């Protein structure tokens, strides 16, 4: 025991213990990462890309061109990245019959495997934003609710409404609601800028700030209506319309009642 006590007081013990602790933490994270991530092999990726190419030629090339070069009715897809394909196809926006109208979210035509294959094929032809993995979407851990609310009001509320319910834009277009949208698709929308939405690069809004915005949106989805009926949470227009309708209706009713009583 005395010998151990003597070694414990040695000046080299503290740095040695620190190095051992860092090695232990690094090993633990490496093992955990290896256990949770299952990267596909080169052969599997090649097969996935080939599958995506077949799907593209059958369902997308008539509008976007055989080589993703685009056409008079559809944009080119070279360089849009896997994130853009995943957002458009997994949310049901693509494929679409009429490109002249704003494309709304609907049930997807392709399943998850087919969407993954399409995204892999498009991404294989030109680099672009990648699909964020689950490890990059941990908004509960890495996001700030207060910062997310401030960022949303500064960058998003002028189109999507202060409560994320969506709103009208110019020339018949509109910003859709962000309620009920998955965190992955919200992140992809910010980095790809679909339709009328601008692209928010990592220099404009950092990945951590994007997670804060997502955290605020998810909190707004479950926020209770303590003030009564929400009325769609689209601002003072519906509230004013309701007040005018009820108020004027009440005044007209009172006027009719007084006129009938005066007879």
DSSP helical segment count:
12
CATH class of the domain at 134-221: Mainly Alpha
CATH architecture of the domain at 134-221: Orthogonal Bundle
Report the structural category: mainly alpha
CATH topology of the domain at 134-221: Cytochrome Bc1 Complex, Chain D, domain 2
Helices and strands, in order, run as HHHHHHHHHEEHHH
pLDDT below 50 for ≥5 consecutive residues: which ranges?
28-37
Overall mean pLDDT stands at 85
- Radius of gyration from the alpha-carbon trace, in angstroms: 27 Å
Helix percent band: 55-70%
Tally the beta strands. 2
**Euclidean distance between termini CA atoms:** 111 Å
**For the record, what is the CATH homologous superfamily label of the domain at 134-221?**
Cytochrome c-like domain
Shape: flat
State the oligomer: single chain
What proportion strand?
A: under 5%
Largest sheet: 2 strands, antiparallel
Q: In what order do the strands lie side by side in the largest sheet?
A: 1-2
């Amino acid at each position: 025991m005395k010998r151990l006590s003597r070694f414990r007081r040695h000046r080299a013990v503290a740095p040695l213990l620190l190095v051992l602790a860092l090695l232990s933490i690094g090993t633990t994270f490496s093992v955990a990462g290896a256990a949770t991530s299952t990267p596909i092999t080169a052969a599997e990726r090649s097969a996935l890309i080939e599958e995506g190419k077949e799907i593209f030629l059958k369902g997308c090339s008539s509008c976007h061109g055989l080589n993703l070069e685009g056409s008079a009715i559809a944009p080119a897809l070279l360089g849009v990245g896997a994130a853009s394909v995943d957002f458009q196809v997994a949310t049901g926006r693509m494929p679409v019959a009429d490109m002249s109208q704003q494309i709304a979210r609907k049930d997807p035509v392709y399943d998850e495997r087919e969407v993954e294959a399409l995204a892999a094929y498009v991404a294989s032809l030109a680099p672009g934003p990648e699909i964020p993995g689950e490890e990059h979407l941990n908004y509960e851990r890495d996001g700030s609710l207060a910062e997310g609310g401030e960022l949303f009001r500064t960058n998003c509320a002028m189109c999507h409404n202060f409560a994320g319910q969506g709103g009208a834009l110019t020339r018949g277009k509109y910003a859709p609601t962000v309620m009920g949208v998955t965190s992955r698709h919200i992140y992809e929308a910010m980095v790809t800028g679909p339709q009328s939405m601008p692209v928010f690069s990592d220099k404009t809004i950092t990945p951590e700030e994007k997670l804060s915005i997502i955290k605020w949106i998810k909190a707004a989805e479950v926020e209770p209506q303590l003030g009564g009926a929400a009325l769609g949470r689209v601002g003072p227009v519906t509230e004013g319309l309701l007040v005018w309708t009820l108020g004027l209706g009440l005044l007209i009713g009172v006027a009719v009642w007084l006129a009938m009583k005066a007879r």
